[in-house]
Amino acid sequence: QVQLVESGGGLVQAGGSLRLSCAASGRTFSIYRMGWFRQATGKEREFVGLISWNGGRTAYADSVKDRFIISRDNAKNTMYLQMSSLKPEDTGVYYCATVVGSTSPGVWGQGTLVTVSS
Fold it and tell me: In the structure, what pLDDT confidence band is assigned to residue 30 with cuts at 50, 70 and 90?
């Protein structure tokens, strides 16, 4: 089973950019659809976006469309989330996960905190 570790979170001002990484262990990373999810304090975890197994297809939540880009490098067993034009409402813990079904998470990472100051 794949194991996931996120990194790259931190504090950024509104309008700034940040890139998150999700490193996967195991040789099966390339077979999974992968996704990013986030959870703000006091709110439910929400879907951010996903990427197909070969990176050929991506899909995003309306709230991040045109601002966030998901990519992956299967040779490095790593997925990325490039975030730009960040807003305070993007603040939360960001998780990477395998994606099962439509947009449901399977295996989770431990999360990385992103804080966007106004």
Answer: confident
